[in-house]
Amino acid sequence: MFIQTESTPNPATLKFLPGQTVLEAGTADFATAEAAETSPLASRIFAVKGVNGVFFGNDFVTVTKADDVEWDHIKPAILGAVMEHYQSGQPVINAGGEQASGHAEHSGEHGEVVSQIKELLDSRVRPAVAQDGGDITFHGFERGVVYLHMQGACAGCPSSTLTLKMGIENLLRHYIPEVTEVRPVAV
């Protein structure tokens, strides 16, 4: 098994490509080792000292490290954990485990606007940020403000504010006149 790595715009996050499917559908975000208990793969990665976050996409795993740790010191152990997992035959996420952290549900007024927002996020935004090892999901829409949840490499990325304001906000405002602003939300 050959696992490739790619850097991301977030220097604290590295993207690991195991060369096979990680999740069939959706994404999974683990901010703590406790949250990772439902995932044998995430638990193995969190066992590496210095790991602060694990995120799964369709064909990648992104790992966020602590600021006081160097990639040169933990990257080999993370590669080993990913390889061990795939050789073990265990599932990425146990049956009944949390997965597919997609868009938040929205009921009530502005249903058509929210549908348009989600469609643009799914078709234009999410594929692009997945290439960088992250995901951005809809969290809410209120008085013209779209609230988005940043995950994986996007969470804590130095360029995420610029991406939100100059990229996503401009895109949504162009296609959906009801949108006036985009803001990140921590979940």
What does this structure look like?
This protein is an alpha+beta fold and 187 residues long. Helix content is 33%, strand content 24%. It has four helices and eight strands; from the N terminus they run E-E-E-H-E-E-H-H-E-E-H-E. The protein has helices at 40-46, 71-88, 111-131, 160-175, and strands at 4-7, 13-17, 28-30, 51-56, 61-65, 134-142, 145-152, 181-184. A five-stranded antiparallel sheet has the order 1-2-5-4-3, covered by helices on one side. Strand 4 (51-56) and strand 5 form a beta hairpin. Helix 1 (40-46) runs antiparallel to helix 2. The longest helix is centred in the middle third of the chain and has 21 residues, at 111-131. The chain is elongated, with a radius of gyration of 17 Å. The N and C termini lie far apart (35 Å). The mean pLDDT is 88.
Helices and strands in order:
Layout: E1 4-7, E2 13-17, E3 28-30, H1 40-46, E4 51-56, E5 61-65, H2 71-88, H3 111-131, E6 134-142, E7 145-152, H4 160-175, E8 181-184
Parallel strand pairs: 7-8
Antiparallel strand pairs: 1-2, 2-5, 3-4, 4-5, 6-7
Helix pairs in contact: 1-2
Based on the model shown, name its key terms.
alpha+beta; elongated; 187 residues; five-stranded antiparallel beta sheet; 24% strand; 33% helix; three-stranded mixed beta sheet
In a nutshell, what does this entry contain?
The chain is α+β, with helices and mostly antiparallel strands. The chain has four helices and eight strands.
Query: How many DSSP E strands?
Result: 8
Tell me roughly what share of residues is in helical segments: 25-40%
Strand order of the largest sheet: 1-2-5-4-3
Can you write the helix and strand succession as a string?
Answer: EEEHEEHHEEHE
Mean pLDDT: 88
Dominant shape: elongated
**Termini gap:** 35 Å
Largest sheet report: 5 strands, antiparallel
Structural class: alpha+beta
Please give the count of helices.
4
Approximate strand percentage: 15-25%
State the low-pLDDT regions, or none.
none
Q: What integer value in Å does the Rg equal?
A: 17 Å
